[in-house]
Amino acid sequence: MIEFELHLESDLRKLLDPVVARPPRPRRRHVPHRTWSRLVTGFAVAALIAAVGFEATLTKSLNPVDWSRSVGQQITNANPASHHQSTTPAKHTTQASPAPSRPSAGQTPALPAVP
Length: 115
What we know:
mainly alpha
């Protein structure tokens, strides 16, 4: 058994002594390209999460439909032309006209009422 152990030890020394004797390779000091892409992707995801959190806090809802309603309301409030218009829709009355008339040059034709 001792002969086998001595033989194994000598073979390992032959194989591993040159590897152990070499100095270690220098470490890389620069940041690889893929690390920059991971960093940029991380910032983009963080910005998206912050935007979702802001909208959820603003509307007090996690539903994106509520977010779009909120944005539409903000646009309506910010548009100066919308302040002069009525917020209730105009009532349309349909009456049968005796004969169809042709619109003048600046008007668009009215669509017939659908029952």
